[in-house]
Queue: 3 jobs
Job 1
Amino acid sequence: MASKSTEKRDRGIKLQDYAAHGVDEYWIIDPEGQTVEQYLLRDGNYNLYLKVANGELNSQVVRGFTIPVRAIFEASANIQALAQILA
């Protein structure tokens, strides 16, 4: 989560550490701005693939994983999305 207290760590050491360990996809969730940034690892570095506030977010690494962006921020949408995932 990209809160003011963790944003520097999320965009700095954590991002570098995940890249060094080959994590192919990295999301930064901004609860204040209610946006999600999706980064993909290419040649050892993360590149911004998508920044969204609405619609659906599709993992480029976990085949078939899709989540409505609103489900990340709204409890009722989260419950609906979870029910669909588990169905």
Job 2
Amino acid sequence: MKIHLLTSLLIILLTSSSIAQEHFDCFSILVGKGATADGSVMLAHNEDDWGDRIVNWYKVPSLQNKAGETVTLKNGALMEKPNRAWSYLWLEMPEMEFSDSYMNEWGVTIASDACMSREDQPELTDGGIGYWLRRAMAEQAKTAREAVKIGGALVQKYGYTSSGRTYCIADGKEVWMLSVVKGKHWIAQRVPFDHVAIIPNYYTISRINMGDTMNFQGSADIVEYAIKRGWYDPKNDGVFSFREVYSDPGNLSNMGNLVRHMSAINALSDRQYYVDDEFPFSFVPRKQVDLKMLFDVLRNHNEGTPFDEWKGDSLSNPHQHGRAICSATTQYGFVAQLRNNLPREIGFVLWISPFRPCVHPFTQWYFGMDEMPDYFAEDTYREALGHHWEAIDNVFEYAPRNNFLKFVKHAKKVDEHYAARITAIQKRIHDYENELINKQETFERSMVTFLRNNQKMAGKSISDYCAKQVEKSLEMIP
């Protein structure tokens, strides 16, 4: 493999330089409808956070709120609830402010990636909005485009509390990136119909065209504010680039971001890139993307690149070396498969790998589940918000029966002898995933008829089908 001279120097920097955004390791792949093998929209995501965590899994029904009813945001602001909140699947991580993921009854699916901005004078109203931003979008939006409008309006009203973040938002038709900056500025771009977009933990939206409302939304003063702050000089700096102007400068050169971005693009693109190349916002994949391709990327440890520091070392594991897409901090991975040509109960599905994608299979969690498998939540969905911010000293004592922690313990055991065990483990999980993919069409065809004749019983059947998959994945971890 050809290596640029600068790339050789950067290999050294990968291990010797400090990482400015330690623990910000989330990663997403956004795939347009025209770029997938089955005509679905796909959103793949690894959620990464530091420390031992649990993930609670909930199915929240559609809820009717009283007129004028409000919710108090974390820092004190009052936000009015919608008259009706849509039903959604909710992946909740207690204590964490920016780690939950959602898929609602319209297929609107939301995850996020931290992106450090340079903003040091944020405008916040009543403490601003953080945790509730994605939840509000999930409760209110019927499309990804509408979610962007809702999210942007909330940022402009309250101001965003974190340094910066990009929300990846998909439905069965479109997929968008919504990049927010601390304070009241934001920009959003639609991923083209036949393109794939990759985002680690820096902004990837570059050139913008606010006159093209089909593909862009954002703050009206996004350029003028940058000029006012002295971040951008239109006479000397050339074409405005959101990522270059609004990013924390060190974030764009962060090797953990560059290497993960490069590894994912090279896995899916016909053109091969190096860390010192300029990566595109999006690209046409070398072939139509399918589920297994995305599973493989979410399991990537920089294999086949100069940045594969593990290289099969029998005395360690790939999660001890540098930053990779599948890392020591990964808490769960998912691929959302969103199809509008099927009933929502089976058309919208999260393929979820609990904790570590490289050692745990992706199994189906259909939106049509009427209940979650046993022991995958510590509370009911009604109680969860009230306990979300409670401190957890020891997660294994806090949730001893939570099945998610069985995956955590298993992955840590595998890491002790990774080289000796990984080949057999990955063959087993690949065989199981192939079995599920091969059975998918038959199962969904049967459910179309069932949903038409007995929707209540169909919900139970879908729940049972998903629960059996989870039981099998638990049986695969000794």
Job 3
Amino acid sequence: MDASRFGGTKILWKDRKRWCGMPLSFTRYYIVENEGQWLKLFSSVGFLSTVDNEVNFFRIFDISVYQSLFDKMFGVGSITLFVNDESSDKIILRKIKHPHKVRNLIASLVEKERQKHGFRLTEFHS
């Protein structure tokens, strides 16, 4: 998925899956805003054939960050987004740079989207 594919939108963040801290893969991630109307996370995996996924930010209900010792040495980590979506229950952003900063960005954008559209997350406790 090329960034030019998002014509008329603003890319708030983008990165690639990294190997030893270097962006040497064909896995790309984007956070995109469409003129203040919606925020979406896009992921694109592949070179000759690709799989593109997207999720609306208001569908994200939990976020976790994982960093192995090797990841910490190269300043990367993986973020798991738990989503309320029919196509998938989680999305993993693998081996991205500055995972805690990205996690904070995503959390603030999720909250912004929920407030903007009046959505509430209902939690059930047993």
